Amino acid sequence: MEWQEILGLVGGFFTTTSLIPQVWRLYRLKSAREISLTFNIFLGLGVSFWLAYGIALDLPAVIFWNAITILLVGSMLFAKLKFNH
């Protein structure tokens, strides 16, 4: 494995896993007032474009981590719509 691919995997790990505590908190507290709907939509769109970019250029690290991030952002958006009071 090339060092550039390792950089992408490590960077993707940290940026993607940074969302886990927020998602965990949203579902634990059943409250999403502090999360912006606009933030969720823009983040979801941005990650979708990054995923498309990774697919177009066949970049495994970009594809892998952005696919996982889409799931996390989707669960945040679901929590926002479900728990927003």
Strand content: under 5%
Number of domains: 1
What's the CATH class label?
Mainly Alpha
Average pLDDT, rounded to a whole number, is 94
What's the helix-strand series?
HHHH
Number of contiguous helices: 4
Subunit arrangement of the protein: single chain
- Please report the distance between the alpha carbons of the first and last residues: 48 Å
Low-confidence stretches: none
Topology overview:
Elements: H1 3-17, H2 20-29, H3 37-56, H4 60-83
Helix pairs in contact: 1-4, 2-4, 3-4
Give a verbal description of the structure:
With 85 residues, this protein is mostly helical. It has one domain (3-83): Monooxygenase. Helices cover 81% and strands 0% of the residues. It contains four helices and no strands. It has helices spanning 3-17, 20-29, 37-56, 60-83. The mean pLDDT is 94.
